[in-house]
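Slide 14.
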Amino acid sequence: MMRARGAIRLLTTVLFTLFGAACGEAGIEPENPSDGAITFATIGAGEGHTCALTSDGVAYCWGSNRDGQLGIGSDFVPGPIHQVTGDLTFSMLSVGWAHTCALTPEGIAYCWGGNNSGQLGTGNQTDSDVPAPVLTGARFSSIAAGGAHTCAVAVSGSVLCWGFNGNGELGDGTYETRTTPTLLSGGLPLVSVALGGNHGCGLTDNGAAYCWGSGGNGQLGIGPGGSTSPVPVDGGYTFDEVALGSTFTCGIEASGAVLCWGELFGLDPVSIASGTSFRGSAAGFRHACAIDSSGAGHCWGDGDWSTFGAGANDTAMAPVPIAGGHVFRDLAGGWRHSCGVAVDGTALCWGVNQFGQLGTTAVDEIANVPVVVEAERR
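Slide 15: predicted structure.
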């Protein structure tokens, strides 16, 4: 659902993502989008919807709009993709199960979509089909949307969370659901946060990982059991970034090595691919993906419903290359689909298209390899 990166990695990633798309990475030949196509910088995936930002901060969403998570001010969903309503531009965006949140360049947080547990942070539990400002005076440097909860890192260094808290996923030491932001307990100096289905994790500036919330599958990295406040992941590991699935967690070390723990992987962090360096990790419901040093994408975990984009359905605990030879700058994992942005800004998705979450008109079909999102300017 959402990944967290350490401070230096976050800064360089955002700068490249928002301003370096047209050039591609050094030594990587960019793909060529069709004339008139909308080009993207980053992408996120939820249960049945997908959202992406262009290089100039315009948000587009597609797929299920049952709870208003496309942010288009209507339940009607014409065409493959849709520009989010309003004149707002955003510096980053995060997609949860059925809600979406984003930050303006000034650090103001907006959320839209499902709000049954207060995950929009608007002080109520009413869905919003347009971006709604989070009720806080804080300005934020990053934001993460999870199952039915949201967390964000304030520029002051504090972390605030809101939404469902039945498993302690707000990390405030209670099980009380919150419709407005509440402080993460412990006062840890976290520089980034990531959220899963019912848990959260964050990184300090030196890469130490802390997690909180549901832990029945070992996803907190402390063995079985949950916590209503942040606890350090066992083993003394340090990470450049972490990505959280529904009931598991993966982290990428400074060397590029990947470790995962929780459902599918076990209670202790296990190495996913020795000898290969990865970055840009993303986690979905029961699968994860990352980008290797050449820009190629790989996925692992539960590959049912073609979430690997490798041309076949399978389960693999080692990285499986995404088909098509695409060179990626960003990846995202959803419930039964995955998406990526190529270095030229082309958006691609694969997996289940039940709600149009792949951004194509072939609704109800399954794409077992990446297909280009139909993002023509209208």
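Speaker note: The mean pLDDT is 90.
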